[in-house]
Write a structure and sequence with these properties.
This protein has 17 helices and 4 strands. It has 381 residues and is mainly alpha-helical. About 5% of the residues have low confidence.
Length: 381
């Protein structure tokens, strides 16, 4: 029994849940001193004691014994200090290891088709780099000038980027990304149900921007956002999801509709927030579009959006920096089915059917309990 590993896992889990040692001890039905000695690795606990601790902390017993790989080449920034940061990184490391294992078992490694772009873009002046990157990626992925992106998760996975929809109750963390050096490239998106689906999609595109434009800044020790890099990733995401010619064409096609309906229709075509549409219009026509939208919204719905939901006269370079709206506040919002990862599920099904992994291992990889896994298998067609 590795006392140090058990202690390190306990500390990580406890801090991730925001608990003191006394609170963790109370949940586990042991004294604070006994708990402290286990967490510091100064005593050898009985298995029954560890079972009580695991039950009290709401984790599996095996979570206390499993060594966790340390990710280093990660871009993990958040708007707020996060107690769960270490837990998230551990979960991502395990997910990546499971994903890579399945690819190896099935001999289905997907090559990273954008690997040469960071070097090419590093030679471009920063003032025009984000828009150039968006155009280059769309060309590389064989997207036409006017083609909207219907399935960003599938598109990213088709070019060798792993996608992980992770649920975390936090309005200060939207996503992170991992470089090739640590088993990626991978993009992790917070799909908490109080964050709009539009934001999920934008976060995925935003992290792709970081992978292409800021790969040299991938360092797990850094947790403070670089405002210039964030702005550049936001510009990339905007033009990747909504190319200029495509936007102009779709916007002009709605010429005879109410202003509100024009915004709603265009936002649905490109699967972006109404804010993304308004920012683009503000770039072209000035900040007056914000007030026009407010007036139109109030006229139709009888209320005005709050300032935090609809910032006024924000300059284009501040794109994406305002407080993000919750899904409930996104007018005419998208469905969660618009952002659905499916490659890992496909690999798990094939591995089970080929008897390369067990049903219980498949459930573990997909983070499902056995009953849910059996229900999924019963539904396979």
């Amino acid at each position: 029994m590795d006392k140090k590993m058990i202690g390190a896992n306990l500390r990580r889990i406890r801090e991730g849940q925001g608990l003191s040692q006394s609170e963790a001890a109370d949940r586990s039905g042991i004294s604070r001193l006994a708990y402290r000695n286990i967490e510091t690795g100064s005593s050898t606990p009985k298995v029954s004691t560890l079972q009580n601790i695991a039950a009290g902390m709401g984790v599996k017993l095996q979570d206390l014994f499993v060594p966790v790989r340390t990710l280093k080449n990660v871009r993990f920034r958040a708007l707020k200090k996060m107690n769960s940061r270490e837990n998230i990184l551990c979960e991502v490391a395990r997910w990546l290891d499971d994903f890579n294992l399945l690819e190896d078992l099935l001999n289905q490694k997907e090559p990273y088709c954008l690997a040469d772009l960071p070097g090419e873009l590093s030679k471009t002046k920063r003032v025009s780099r984000a828009k150039k990157a968006a155009a280059l990626v769309r060309t590389k992925l064989e997207l036409g000038e006017k083609d909207p992106i219907r399935d960003i998760s599938g598109l990213l996975e088709s070019c060798g980027i792993k996608v992980y929809p992770l649920t975390l109750a936090s309005d200060g963390f939207f996503g992170l990304s991992v470089s090739e050096k640590d088993g990626g490239p991978a993009i992790i998106v917070n799909v908490w149900d109080r964050i709009s689906v539009e934001r999920w999609i934008f976060s995925a595109a935003h992290e792709l921007g970081h992978l292409l434009l800021h790969i040299n800044a991938y360092d797990v020790q850094k947790s403070i956002e670089d405002s210039d890099e964030e702005k550049e990733a936001n510009i990339f995401a905007s033009y990747f999801l909504m190319p200029e010619k495509a936007f102009d064409s779709e916007w002009n096609d709605t010429y005879g509709l109410y202003f509100l309906d024009r915004v709603y229709k265009v936002k649905h075509i490109f699967q972006v927030s109404y804010k993304t549409v308004l920012y683009r219009l503000a770039e072209k026509h000035g900040p007056g579009v914000w007030g026009k939208f407010q007036a139109a919204y109030k006229s139709r719905h009888g209320k005005t959006l709050k300032f935090t939901d609809e910032p006024e006269a924000i300059p284009p370079e501040e794109f994406g920096q305002a407080p993000e709206i919750l899904r409930a506040h996104e007018p005419d919002s998208l469905s969660p089915s618009n952002f659905m990862e499916d490659r890992l599920s496909k690999l798990v099904r094939e591995a089970i059917e080929q008897e390369k992994i067990t049903l219980s291992r498949g459930a573990e990889i997909l983070r499902l309990d056995l009953e849910s896994m059996r229900e999924r298998i019963a539904s396979w067609y």
